[in-house]
């Protein structure tokens, strides 16, 4: 099956991404060390669920948070304390109850948008709560938050 992004050139695909990605959208995307994600042994990237929370001034980078299946017991307490539980019963795109990692914004770029898979969206009240939680995280800086309008 041919994907829309296979038919579009790189510039057209990026323009489409900029127009259609909104705060609160959830995507499955490949992430790696450039996004602050450590791949599992032997891999170069990992598929993660990414919630868009903001955009840089140029619309070239998206700031957001990831959804994890569980809380990694090996991360510092300052990361564990900023995990927000979400229910699969509320968000059917989840396979099970999960956690939103609000400890620090991750960055993603639309340059590989064709590899992104739209999953759904978070309710406005939950997006607001997530954004406020990220803003209050001790792991974030005011400059990094401001970069994405947070």
Description:
25% of the residues are buried. The termini are far apart. A hairpin with a 6-residue loop joins strand 2 (46-55) and strand 3. Helices cover 25% and strands 29% of the residues. The radius of gyration is 15 Å and the shape is globular. The chain has 5 helices and 6 strands; from the N terminus they run ααβββαβββαα. The mean pLDDT is 84. It is of the alpha+beta class.
Topology record:
Layout (H helix, E strand, L loop, with lengths): L3 H4 L2 H11 L4 E7 L14 E10 L6 E7 L8 H4 L2 E4 L11 E11 L8 E5 L2 H13 L5 H6 L3
Antiparallel strand pairs: 1-2, 1-6, 2-3, 3-5, 4-5
Short description:
25% of the residues lie in helices and 29% in strands. It is an alpha+beta fold. The protein has a single domain, classed as SH3 type barrels, CATH 2.30.30.110.
Quaternary state, please? single chain
Which fold name is given in CATH as the topology? SH3 type barrels
Give the DSSP E fraction (strand runs of 2 or more residues).
25-35%
Helix percent band: 25-40%
Category by helix and strand content: alpha+beta
Tally of strands: 6
Largest sheet geometry? 6 strands, antiparallel
Order of helices and strands: HHEEEHEEEHH
Quote the average pLDDT.
84
Q: Which CATH first-tier class would you pick?
A: Mainly Beta
**Looking at the structure, what is the overall shape?**
globular
How far apart are the first and last residues' alpha carbons, in Å? Answer: 39 Å
- Looking at the overall shape, the CATH architecture is Roll
The domain tally reads 1
Helix count equals 5
Strand order of the largest sheet: 4-5-3-2-1-6
Stretches with pLDDT under 50, minimum 5 residues: none
Give the C-alpha Rg. Answer: 15 Å
């Amino acid at each position: 099956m041919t994907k829309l992004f296979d038919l579009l050139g790189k510039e057209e695909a990026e323009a489409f991404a900029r127009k259609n990605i909104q705060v609160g959208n959830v995507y499955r995307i490949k992430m790696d060390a450039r996004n602050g994600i450590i791949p599992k042994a032997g891999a170069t990237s990992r598929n993660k669920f990414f919630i868009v929370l903001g955009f840089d001034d140029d619309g070239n980078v998206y700031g957001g948070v990831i959804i994890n299946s569980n809380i990694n017991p090996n991360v510092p307490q300052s990361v564990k304390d900023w995990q927000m539980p979400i229910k699969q019963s509320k968000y059917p795109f989840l396979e099970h109850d999960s956690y939103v990692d609000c400890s620090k914004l991750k960055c993603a770029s639309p340059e590989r948008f064709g590899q992104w898979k739209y999953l759904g969206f978070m309710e406005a009240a939950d997006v607001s709560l997530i954004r406020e939680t990220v803003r209050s995280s001790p792991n974030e800086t005011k400059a990094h938050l401001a970069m994405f309008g947070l």
